[in-house]
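FAQ: What does the model actually see?

It sees only this:
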Amino acid sequence: MKTYSAIILKDEDMYVAKCPEVGTVSQGSTIEEALANLREATELYLEEFPAQSFFRPLMTTFEVREHAPSPS
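And it is asked to produce this:
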């Protein structure tokens, strides 16, 4: 068993889950459902295209200056 990363984003009324190591994407109406669907999609993908190498993405944060609204 290998551990993969999941990035989960809220998109209107659905959650979108992405696996950056493999490139698989899925969705669900809850975080748990999106993650379960991503797990299934990733397993199916890896059955067809076994991972030749494995990389762990580096996740960090950065700041962006917010622009004040222009005076009217």
